[in-house]
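Chain A, query sequence.
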Amino acid sequence: MVIVSIILIIIAIYLAAGFVFAVAFIVKGVTKIDEGAHGATWGFRLIIIPGTIVFWPFLLNKWIRASKTKEE
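Chain A, predicted structure.
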């Protein structure tokens, strides 16, 4: 039972971090990594929130790499 509780806590922390990331990502990050998202509506941004929460480590990595290539 303790192992299940630990796993659920880890999942909750992961999803909470994903939600915090998703807020920043839908405001600024989505246009940095996807040129097609320029001028995207808030409806589109709301639709991508669940996927952003789940895949936030990959999107963060992509956002960081996109920022580095635009600075150079």
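The chain has a mean pLDDT of 91. The chain has one domain: 2-71.
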